[in-house]
């Protein structure tokens, strides 16, 4: 009688044990390193490594997070998960990947939100403005907490100032060139004439350069408010430049 070698059976049992252990690994291990890279904090973590949920705090906004981990990404040493974030008037869906060196990537992202909800993430500054924001094909890279690459298309729809003054729609276009990530904003022909470029530097700062104006038929309050934005360059037209640090990125 010939006895079969024992090592294949022991190896199979070992793999089964490790597979079961990983499959049931508590969810709190799923986002180790991801939250610090995004400057976020987690609580109420539930589920397993493969599928789970948590409460995520980003800035002053708390969101419900759900994820599904891609198993192959673990073998490639680049954990990747399908992520959904939801908060009042805000929803994001995309793929998040953690790479070596503290690099966090987001690809295939979609974002639907009210302008006020985004303002709560970024901090004060939009005042009485309101709009619906849609972002598609969002891709970005955070390296050491700094935004190093950005890409997207999107729109700001039905921008209004207060309850009575419609300003029109805006288009959004993000790209990354040799100078770094940029966001271009252009109006869609409404009451507010606007063109702006937002440049993001490697040290986490931004520079906004643009012009704004009031088109014929625009509410007189819009023309009266334009000098608050910048320096007059013509009748009902101003040029503006702003600089500062991105909120949440030290």
Task: Tell me the distance between the termini.
Answer: 71 Å
- Please tally the helical runs, counting DSSP H or I stretches of 4 or more residues: 5
- Whole-number radius of gyration? 23 Å
Name the assembly state: single chain
Helix content: 10-25%
Number of beta strands:
14
Biggest sheet strand line-up: 1-2-3-4-5-6-7-8-9-10-11-12-14-13
- Beta percentage is over 45%
Ranges where pLDDT stays below 50 over 5 or more residues in a row are: 12-21
Shape: elongated
Mean pLDDT comes to 79
Q: Describe it for me?
A:
- This protein is of the alpha+beta class and 250 residues long.
- The chain has helices at 7-23, 34-37, 71-75, 115-122, 220-225, and strands spanning 41-47, 51-58, 61-69, 80-87, 90-99, 103-114, 129-143, 146-161, 165-177, 180-187, 192-200, 205-214, 231-234, 237-245.
- The chain has one domain (7-245).
- It is built from 5 helices and 14 strands.
Topology (SSEs and partners):
Layout lengths: L6 H17 L10 H4 L3 E7 L3 E8 L2 E9 L1 H5 L4 E8 L2 E10 L3 E12 H8 L6 E15 L2 E16 L3 E13 L2 E8 L4 E9 L4 E10 L5 H6 L5 E4 L2 E9 L5
Antiparallel strand pairs: 1-2, 2-3, 3-4, 4-5, 5-6, 6-7, 7-8, 8-9, 9-10, 10-11, 11-12, 12-14, 13-14
């Amino acid at each position: 009688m010939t006895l079969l070698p024992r090592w294949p059976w022991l190896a199979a049992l070992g793999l089964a044990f490790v597979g079961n252990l990983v499959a049931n690994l508590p969810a709190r291990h799923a986002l180790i390193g991801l939250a610090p890279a995004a400057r976020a904090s987690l609580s109420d973590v539930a589920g397993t490594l493969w599928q789970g949920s948590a409460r995520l705090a980003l800035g002053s906004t708390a969101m419900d997070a759900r994820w599904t981990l891609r198993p192959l990404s673990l073998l490639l040493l680049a954990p990747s998960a399908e992520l959904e974030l939801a908060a009042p008037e805000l929803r994001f869906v995309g793929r998040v990947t953690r790479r070596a060196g503290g690099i966090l990537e987001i690809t295939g992202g979609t974002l639907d939100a009210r302008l006020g909800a985004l303002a709560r993430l970024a901090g004060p500054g939009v005042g009485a403005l309101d709009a619906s924001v849609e972002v598609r094909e969002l891709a970005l890279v955070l390296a050491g907490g700094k935004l190093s690459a950005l890409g997207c298309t999107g729109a700001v729809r039905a921008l209004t100032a207060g309850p009575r003054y419609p300003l029109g729609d805006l288009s959004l276009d993000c790209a990354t060139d040799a100078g770094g990530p940029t966001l271009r904003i252009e109006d869609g022909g409404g009451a507010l004439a606007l063109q702006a470029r937002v440049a993001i530097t490697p040290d986490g700062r931004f520079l906004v350069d643009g012009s704004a104006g009031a088109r014929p038929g625009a509410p007189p309050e819009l023309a009266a408010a334009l000098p608050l934005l910048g320096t007059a360059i013509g009748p009902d037209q101003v040029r503006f430049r702003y600089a500062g640090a991105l909120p949440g990125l030290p």
